[in-house]
Amino acid sequence: MNSSLVGNQSGRPFCLLAISYLETINFCLLEVVIIVFLMVLIISGNIIVIFVFHCAPLLNHHTTSYFIQTMAYADLLVGVSCLVPSLSLLHYPIVLSESLVCQIFGYVVSVLKSVSMASLACISIDRYIAITKPLTYNTLVTPWRLRICILIIWLYSCLVFLPSFHWGKPGYHGDVFQWCANSWNTDPYFTLFIVVMLYAPAAFIVCFTYFNIFRICQQHTKEINERRVRFSSQDGEAGEAQPCPDKRYAMVLFRITSVFYILWLPYIIYFLLESSNVYSNRVASFLTTWLAISNSFCNCVIYSLSNSVFQKGLKRLSGAICASCARQRVAKDSSTSRSKRSSNGCHV
């Protein structure tokens, strides 16, 4: 049975944000607005990212583009999957049972966000290898190895959350369905399993690699500036401080990673508290869950604002679209003028 049709004895639909319910429209207004708004942003933003990567060959020169595109496809699927709770809240009939739908939805979103988390960890490893072993980087990191790594990420993410169907709830993504909110409970052992197998290793890898990346870049910058000052003093010219070139690109990736964990931290904290029976609140579960899901759109914004090559690719894509529209308009105007001339000739 559809969750939005299942309510209390007064006939009201089930709403996690009870303050958003209006008798006149008979559905959870605020929940629908939040989910649909995020869905539109996530889908449109990640489609643009995917098209820009295909239109800008320079972006594909970085090996991290494999993982960035993987994240974009995973985030796009997150946006598409948001159609499920949106249709449910709007009273669209669902063929499958509510319990099965909300379990599948929770599993799919958990897998997709796990792919994003693992991709961020792999990006940090890739940058760490590029800076610590620049001479052997091209032999260590090859396209076919990257493809195998991406395949492993998807398989690992699917396997980690597979026990959720029998062990416990992997998250609160499906709690817009009443069965998920009331009958599908979290299990402290399964929560610990997810933390040990996914959250903790990914966070440790990211912290370790970026700490060492910035430390090495700082050392390189200091050495380069000392040499520049030494040689410039001999020539009688003032030397300018030059930042480490790898640090700029590392900063872009670090911003993406930082925003990811900032948006996911409230959700992870609440997940740990709720599964341990310390604190439980439906409003908090909804807000922290969809705050974490909003990260699927933030990746697009950060990358477009921070990467100059991406900005050039975006301008190239928008220019191509505008040129195509202009050609269609010209063709339409010419065909219209020809039809007018032919009709005038018939009346002479």
TrEMBL record:
Membrane topology term: Multi-pass membrane protein
Domain (G-protein coupled receptors family 1 profile): residue spans on this chain: 45-303
Main location group: membrane
MF terms from GO for this chain are: G protein-coupled receptor activity
Q: Which Pfam families match?
A: 7tm_1 (PF00001)
Record bears the keyword Cell membrane? yes
The biological processes this protein is annotated with in GO are: glucose homeostasis; insulin receptor signaling pathway; negative regulation of insulin receptor signaling pathway; positive regulation of multicellular organism growth
* Alphabetical list of InterPro entries matching this protein: GPCR_opsins, GPCR_Rhodpsn, GPCR_Rhodpsn_7TM
Q: Which GO terms describe its cellular component?
A: plasma membrane
Q: Which UniProt keywords apply?
A: Cell membrane, G-protein coupled receptor, Glycoprotein, Membrane, Receptor, Transducer, Transmembrane, Transmembrane helix
Any idea where this protein resides? Cell membrane
Transmembrane parts of this sequence = 32-59, 71-92, 104-125, 146-168, 188-213, 252-273, 285-306
What's the superkingdom here? Eukaryota
Does the keyword section mention Ribosomal protein? no
Task: Please give the family membership noted in the entry.
Answer: Belongs to the G-protein coupled receptor 1 family.
Protein name from the UniProt record = G protein-coupled receptor 21
Q: Which gene encodes it?
A: GPR21
